[in-house]
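Predict the 3D structure for this chain.
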Amino acid sequence: MISSAFGWEPRARDFPRRNRLISGLALGVVIVEAAKRSGSLITARLALEQGREVFAVPGSPLDPRAEGTNSLIKQGATPVTETADIVAVLEPIMGMALTAREPEPTDGDRVHDVDPAADERARIVALLSPAPVLVDDLVRLAKSSPRVVRLVLLELELAGRLERHGGGLVSLV
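Done. Predicted structure below.
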């Protein structure tokens, strides 16, 4: 997720420009779900115009949310059902072997094997204040993994020191 400038409210008309930047910076885009007239299809078109790869996750032909992705596949997008599908296309472009990372565990997964170092924990806490901050920004600024940041936030929340706000924002109490 890309956060907007302070005080700037996202507007529908800004999404195509943002998506042009995203598709231009990437080697390719993966469209996971797209209705017939989805903004995701605009991103796919922009990626094609910029010479980028377009990948699409197939869906049920009965599901209107899959009309766009299924249409992209009919038009030549690479179907994706696993990471290896993307790697197989991008390795020759990059001229090097790519290895897929293990996915970050979800909130339901165990986190007992994560034990952030004291300096890493302190770095994350130091980035917090009474002013709300995006969790994604914490991960980036702390130069830490999402898994470790979520664990530190959970510890703070259990201690009654963290408040969660809408939109992925957190602050110290």
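Helices lie at 15-25, 39-49, 67-74, 83-94, 118-126, 135-142, 146-158.
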